[in-house]
Amino acid sequence: MSNATTNAETVHRVSFLDKDSLAIPILKILQADGTAYEEAVLPVIDETLAAKIHDTCVFTRVLDERMLGAQRQGRISFYMTCTGEEASIVGSTAALEEGDVILAQYREHAALRYRGFTTEQFMNQMFSNEKDFGKGRQMPIHYGSEALNYQTISSPLATQIPQATGVGYSLKMQGKRNIAICYFGEGAASEGDFHAGLNMAAVLSSPVIFFCRNNGYAISTPTDEQFKGNGIASRGVGYGMHTIRVDGNDMLAVLAATQQARAYALEHNAPVLIEAMTYRLGAHSSSDDPSGYRSKDEEAKWQQHDPVKRFKLWMINKGWMNEQKDADLYVKYREEVLSELKVAEKVPTPHIDYIIEDVYDTPTPILKKQLADLKDHVKKYPESYPKSAGRI
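The structure corresponding to this sequence follows.
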């Protein structure tokens, strides 16, 4: 018999529970003007860490601005922004150690930047050129870096959630003092992989942080049409794991929650669920038009909760930043991103032979036959494959 049963209160009349039976507080540390709440307990942070967080946020804003523009110009095929969710991503990543493994969904390029992914590496991936670590096989923004412990993005929704459980369990079995962190949106929490992954992590005592970016929409579907429960945090409690809900636009709240979640996961070899309440200021992707499902007034309201501006104001209040330094950083990164973009788009695409590498140690006869057929096809219709025709 489980502890939940043996420790339960006994009643003698029918008494149902509903979604309001579990009150879930939300952690807030920073106010909109960049000052901390009077009774707030701040995370461990110094000027050096704050500067790195701010630098990452500015770079990410510039990258999103430039590359969405590049997509509109037809220079890349696809893009997704992090705009509005930077505190959730950067604040949590800043609480990790380098050996912790990141399993992202698709909007966490700020985490990769925080760990040291260069502007050139971002551009090589998005232009699918021969310097791309993925050898041109993925859509833009499907990053991966073995050196930075950032597992390669998969397009199918939520597949990374049960994988994160396995990664955390593997780290535990190897005796490493590291954890896995898994990012996903509240829409992904509607997938079966979410439930399987969390239950498995709890049962197997896997040291993993499940980080839900609850940004209000699963593409065009608002949360009230996705589920009727008390958000995503209530599900963590249901699966028997430590859970916290935070203001996802509050950099310090996210940092504090993740620092303590990591410490708990390591000490107890147990999973933790963090639900960050945030908002996607941009479109779901470059293929989406949010005006079809939300109002300009709604977007303007959330602009007032801009996480990057709030953290910058906190740094200014601390004497660690000023408006001129902030403006100079934007200028620097706009020039850098544009310069690297122009270089990367001129780098040749990967050789066509790469398409069957890394699947097996030695390509199978079937793969070799398919490659030969593909080459014949490209040679027959070179005008349809201008980038590949010259590299056969």
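The chain has a mean pLDDT of 96.
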